[in-house]
Design goal:
Layout: E1 14-21, H1 29-39, E2 43-50, H2 51-54, H3 61-71, E3 75-78, E4 92-93, H4 95-100, E5 105-109, E6 112-116, H5 119-130, E7 138-142, H6 146-157, E8 162-166, H7 170-184, E9 189-191, H8 195-200, E10 204-207, E11 231-234, H9 243-250, E12 255-256, H10 259-274, H11 280-295
Parallel strand pairs: 1-2, 1-3, 4-6, 7-8, 7-10, 8-9, 10-11, 11-12
Antiparallel strand pairs: 3-5, 5-6
Length: about 300
């Protein structure tokens, strides 16, 4: 079955996109995508499809995708908690999405729904640009959900020798470890057991859980386990200064907030939606200006 293209502007200059997830009213994704489109002389509308606010749940995903294609959306981003749930509802996957097993970008094209994952490249670029030169031999990752699948693949792509995965659901953590070892080689990923002891010998810590977001307050690891030799990266970016990063900084750790991953994954999704190349430096500047506006009383908030 084929669907109509976006019903406004010229096909190459007008785009309808959006974000699917729960509790996403504070998303900064509309700002990032629409500002970059404006800078390129494009018309792009980026809407929020907040399942929590609309009283929807995972069972509504198939109907939503049908409706989105029917009304002519060019694509949607997908965030927590649907990055894996959306996979069986698609007609195809990019090589990257298939390898990771999670989707954060869906492109509607020629009557088909193709899933992509831009989180992997987004996180890899963030680490390389934001934490240059850090040791990467042994890393602890908190979280084995959709975002955790992406960050784990990025870390192993970057040469991490031993990645210890911790998750509140041991079975989910074990499944990710098995997938990683099948793809990268036995022993590259390890199911975590003693968090504090593992952190003692680790080079870095990555939080790939929603803990630290406005709606999920807290710290994903015991603060006393943080030490100056440990670098700490958080994928959360609302707030940018999570409790984890604040605790890490007070203990002398090098830290990386979630802004880089947010911008770089959004830029790659913009490329997919529009067929144009986003200016990464410009998008990062725009994001930083947005954050500065928030801190001085702006009324916009976080992205997906």
């Amino acid at each position: 079955m084929s669907f109509a293209p976006s019903p406004f502007s010229a096909p190459d200059t007008g785009f309808l996109t959006g974000l699917v997830g729960r509790d996403i009213q504070a998303s900064r994704s509309p700002w990032m995508h629409e500002c970059e489109a404006d800078a390129q002389g494009l018309r792009l509308v980026y809407s929020l499809y907040d399942f929590a606010a609309r009283g929807w749940d995972e069972t509504d995903l198939p109907r939503f995708l049908d409706a989105a294609a029917l009304v002519g959306l060019d694509g949607v981003n997908v965030t927590h908690p649907y990055k894996q749930a959306v996979v069986p509802l698609l007609d195809g996957l990019s090589d990257g999405a298939r390898r990771v097993g999670a989707v954060n970008t869906v492109k509607f094209e020629n009557g088909r729904r193709i899933g992509h994952n831009t989180d992997v490249i987004g996180f890899a670029e963030s680490i390389e640009n934001g934490l240059p030169g850090v040791a990467r031999a042994r890393i602890v990752q908190m979280g084995a959900g959709g975002a955790g699948f992406a960050t784990a693949h990025a870390l192993l792509d970057l040469g991490v020798e031993e990645l210890h995965i911790f998750d509140t659901d041991p079975a989910r953590g074990a499944a990710l470890v098995a997938k990683l070892n099948a793809g990268f080689g036995a022993g590259r990923a390890v199911a975590g057991h003693d968090l504090v002891a593992t952190l003692t010998g680790a080079d870095g810590l990555v939080n790939a859980t929603p803990v630290g977001m406005a709606n999920y307050p807290g710290v994903p690891v015991p603060a006393e386990a943080l030490r100056p030799a440990l670098w700490v990266a958080d994928i959360v970016y609302f707030p940018l200064e999570t409790r984890l990063l604040a605790e890490a900084r007070t203990r002398g750790c090098r830290t990386l907030d979630g802004s880089g991953m947010a911008v770089y994954q959004a830029a790659a999704a913009f490329d997919i939606f529009t067929g144009r190349t986003a200016d990464r430096a410009r998008m990062l500047d725009s994001f930083k200006a947005f954050v500065a506006g928030d801190s001085s009383g702006g009324d916009r908030a976080e992205a997906a």
